[in-house]
Amino acid sequence: MSGEHRWRGPLLMVAGLLAVWQVLYWIVSDIALRSPLSTISYTYVLLGRASFWPHVYESATAFAAAIVIAVSLGLTIGLALGFGRLAGQVFEPMLVALYSVPKVTLYPILLLTFGLGISAKIAFGALHGFIPIALFTINAVRNVRPILIKTGRSLNYSTTDMVWRILIPAALPEIFSGIRIGLSLTLIGTLLGEMFASQRGLGHMLMNAIGLHNIDVIMSITFILIVFAAVVSSALLIIDRRLHRLA
């Protein structure tokens, strides 16, 4: 596929979204929305403010720590429960039950445990992200061809060798799909943590702007977050598709 055809779909989608945004602005007017051009212009102004970047740094730090914890915890639990059939049958329903619980109800417990600092935001973000990664990893390990497991056992691989040489390479495409979903949920969890109990961060700025009905800030921060999420998700999706083609 040529470069022109490869980018035609995404460009048409972006153009369509901007057109829908503009139409909604004409319908709602300045009461609850800003036009795409106005939002982009204000975003440029916002990015030029020195006071804005400490909030970005706070959110980026919390999100980076949360995704590292979510991936590490999710992979560890997923590999253990996927490889250990009995443990998986016992604990997987617990993970599914925990995943179905609205995470907001657990936030007061996290605040009591970690306090009002950045630790609570990291924990809340990781809580959102590690469960889907674990569930995807469990299914990925279970779908590994039995002949590969038998081969590893016939070669007297230890559990560590079995994980690194057999399970992870064979299950990597599906595991990466879980990581891609977990990353998006971790970002949401981190921002929600900043909105409820934080003194800095983009979520904190967004919550203040909602309280003050500052539509310019609301639209600009939302626009920045959507662009960031779309770019990262698109990059991960490209990698995900390549891994599935190679599988």
What do you see in this structure?
The chain is mainly alpha-helical. Helices cover 84% and strands 0% of the residues. The chain contains 10 helices and no strands. The chain has helices spanning 3-28, 36-47, 53-83, 85-100, 107-114, 118-142, 146-154, 159-196, 202-212, 215-246. The mean pLDDT is 84.
| Main sheet overview | none
Number of helices: 10
Kindly state the percentage of residues in helix.
Answer: over 70%
Number of DSSP E strands: 0
Could you name the ranges where pLDDT drops below 50 across 5 or more consecutive residues?
none
Give me some keywords for this one:
single chain; mainly alpha; 247 residues
Quick structural gist:
With 247 residues, the protein is mainly alpha-helical.
Set down the secondary structure blueprint.
Layout: H1 3-28, H2 36-47, H3 53-83, H4 85-100, H5 107-114, H6 118-142, H7 146-154, H8 159-196, H9 202-212, H10 215-246
Helix pairs in contact: 2-10, 3-4, 3-6, 3-8, 3-9, 4-6, 5-6, 6-8, 7-8, 8-9, 8-10, 9-10
